[in-house]
Automatic annotation (TrEMBL):
Protein name in UniProt: Transketolase
One MF annotation (Gene Ontology) recorded for this entry: magnesium ion binding
Transketolase N-terminal domain sequence ranges: 28-275
Pfam families attached to this UniProt entry: Transketolase_N
Length: 285
């Protein structure tokens, strides 16, 4: 007898989606152009929780004026987004095989030609301002839609993030939700060595946001937090998701060199074996 979805935990209900998204990501990184492996793997549960447990979006009505809006501000995680959109029904999974090839609309950073992508992103530091605009527009139009923005932690070194944070709080945009993929790494090293962010939760609170922290690969925790906003009326919500860059792959998890990879046939086989065995939760360097 099948168990009604409502009786399953998010982890039990959505783990299969997360596993298939990881498989798609490693396959895309084995293509001719390679891919942003580490920061895509760290996003998997965040995107799975959002697309399967939180966002009010419908592949059959992508322009519904009452939909929630999602922006992947760290647009270099595009392959995780493409895999999630395919898993959620916005894209034919077969299209993923063309990632990075001539003529494909699936490029290294997302563009609006891809169903489900609201705006092009990838120049870091812009997504939060755009999300704030969507949230403000929904409120002015009397629409129920919320805006969700996912940023990288290194991305927070962009000054425009803090300008947007300040503006969103001033506008009391409690239909705006931001998630930080707090994997502790950026291109050139640990965020705390390059340009320290801590005390990060405190900084966001000081900017007027309601802040929570969650284990970023725990679907139950993510759906529980992201599905219950606003946490404080009148304040935008910021979730610090504690993640591991390259999560799922023991040979790169937590390593700065996981940022970009072009996987050889042998490496792809090794990655698939690790995913199948579930051995790569990984710690940090
Ligand atoms: C404005 C801007 N500057 C530089 C880059 C190049 N770049 C791409 S990814 C990246 C590192 C970002 O680190 P983080 O936000 O922590 O991402 P993650 O660790 O999740 O990959 C940089 C500097 C960019 N995309 N945009
Ligand atoms: Mg990072």
């Amino acid at each position: 007898m099948s168990v009604p979805l409502t009786e399953l935990s998010a982890g039990a209900a959505f783990a299969g989606h997360a596993a298939r998204i990881r498989e798609h990501i490693v396959a895309m990184c084995s293509g001719p152009e390679g891919g942003h492996l580490g920061g895509s793997m760290s996003l998997v549960e965040i995107l799975t929780a959002l697309y399967f447990g939180v966002l009010r979006v419908d592949p059959a009505a992508p322009a519904d004026p009452d939909r929630d809006v999602f922006l992947l501000s760290k647009g270099h995680g595009a392959i995780a987004l493409y895999a999630t959109l395919a898993e959620r029904g916005f894209l034919d999974p077969a299209e993923l095989a063309g990632f990075g090839t001539w003529g494909s609309r699936l490029m290294a950073h997302p563009v609006r030609a891809v169903p489900g992508v609201e705006l092009p992103t990838g120049s870091l530091g812009h997504g939060l301002a755009l999300g704030a605009g969507f949230a403000l527009a929904a409120r002015l139009d009397g629409r129920p839609g919320r805006a969700y923005v996912v940023m990288g932690d290194g991305e927070l070194q962009e000054g425009s993030v803090w300008e947007s944070a300040m503006g969103a709080a001033a506008q009391r945009l409690d239909n705006l939700v931001a998630v930080v993929d707090r994997n502790g790494l950026q291109i050139s090293g640990r965020t705390e060595d390059v340009c320290a962010l801590e005390p990060l939760a405190q900084r966001w609170r000081t900017f007027g946001w309601s802040v929570r922290e969650a284990p970023g690969h725990d679907l139950d925790a993510l759906v529980g937090a992201l599905g219950s906003t606003p946490w404080e009326p009148g304040r935008p919500s910021l979730l610090l998701a504690d993640t591991t860059k390259g999560a799922g792959l023991p040979f790169v998890a937590g390593a700065v060199h996981s940022h970009f990879a072009t996987l050889s046939v042998r490496q792809l086989a090794r990655a698939r074996a690790a995913l199948a065995a579930g051995t790569g939760g990984g710690g940090r360097d």
